[in-house]
Amino acid sequence: MKFTSKILLGLLLLLFAGVVSSNIILKSKYDKIDKSDNYWNYASVLQQPFKYLKITGGNSTKIAFEQSTKCSVKILQQWKSWYKGEIKAYVSNDTLYINFDYVADNLYNKFWMESATTVRIFSPELLYVEGFNTKLEMFKIKQKSISVNMSGKSEFELESMSTAFDSLNITQKDSSAVVFEMSPDYKTTETFHIKKVAASVQGVSILDLGHAQIDSLQLSIADSSGIILSGGALKKRFR
What we know:
By secondary structure, this protein is an alpha/beta fold. The protein has helices at 3-31, 78-82, 107-115, 231-238, and strands at residues 42-46, 52-56, 62-67, 72-76, 84-92, 95-103, 117-123, 128-132, 135-141, 145-151, 153-160, 164-172, 175-182, 192-201, 206-209, 212-221, 226-229. The model has no long low-confidence stretch (mean pLDDT 85).
């Protein structure tokens, strides 16, 4: 066998050994993962308690909140290997702060980011949510009251598992969209009841309460903004 052929054969054997050893290492790590955890592909970065949330950035991806007995913040594991920048999360005075600083390297990563839920947030409840240039979805919510403040180019959606709210306090400006609706997991009805809504909708924002029956509505809305209400809520307000 020629010397060059021996070198090529040796390189191929080294390459094959590298692939096999990498697969063994990856399989070992995968086998250690708790498959009962629905979010096993997320890395926990914070476990301090909080009741308030302030988010800056992240409107080109998805951020999700779910009620849980324990507080935590989890970030998709592919984040660090795929994207330039960082997601900072910290707690101060019962408030969770999340700041996004990233740049997608290419159009594929940008498209993937738009469809992915990059950050998942868990706590027993959130009393106040503030977002600037962000996109936040709250799933299977059972609490009765919340205050929401959205600005910049933001989207906020709350899916409730309860058909009755005590109060909603909503502040919107710039170009923000806020939606309250029943969770699709609640099969009985799409309609819910709210005792009191206080809303300020400014800029070119839109507030969707189209499935809500509202007892008391305090509303300040700009000419360039919009609000979607049910027929029952309109009758109570303008009769």
